[in-house]
Write a structure and sequence with these properties.
CATH topology: Lipocalin
Order of helices and strands: HEEEEEEEE
InterPro entries: DUF2147
Number of helices: 1
Number of domains: 1
Structural class: alpha+beta
Strand content: 35-45%
Signal peptide: 1-22
Keywords: Signal
CATH class: Mainly Beta
Distance between the termini: 46 Å
Protein name: DUF2147 domain-containing protein
Domain DUF2147: 30-151
Number of strands: 8
Length: 153
Amino acid sequence: MTAYKGLLTGLVLSLITSFGFAAESDPLVGKWKTIDDRTGYSRADVEIKKKPDGTYEGIIVETRNIPGTEKMGICSNCPGHLKGKPFIGLPFIWGFKEDKANPLLYIDGKVLDPIGGRVYRGKARLNASGKRLTLRGYIGVSVIGRSVTWVKY
C-alpha cells in the first residue's frame, strides 16, 4: 500500500509540474506593460491568460495617467455590459487564437479601446524573444487600424 501511495503521489506531482511548465512556456501568457503609440507613456498593465477553449483574454490589472491628465477609473464610453465598469479587471482583449501556420502570430481577436469605447478586430505578433507584442486593432481590413507595442515583464 505504501508503494502505491508513493507512486500515486509521484504521478500527481508529475502532472502538476507538467501543467505548470506548459502554462509558463506559453509566451503570450503573463503580464504586459502597454505603451501608448501617440505619447510613448505606459497607460496600463494587462494580464493575458489562456482560456479553456484555447483563446486568449487580457484584463487590465493597473492603470496610469499620462502626466498632466486625470487618471480615469471607469469605462464610461464602453459598449453594452462593459459600460460603467472599473478599468481594473476590465476585459481589454479577447478571442485571440494562435495562428497554426505561425506560432508568433495571434489572430481573430477583439480589442477594446477603453477610452473611446469602441471594439475593434485584432491581431497580434510576438517578436522572436517573446518580450514584445505588437497589437493591431482595426476596422474591416488591417490596413485601416492602429498598432501599439506591449512589453512583457
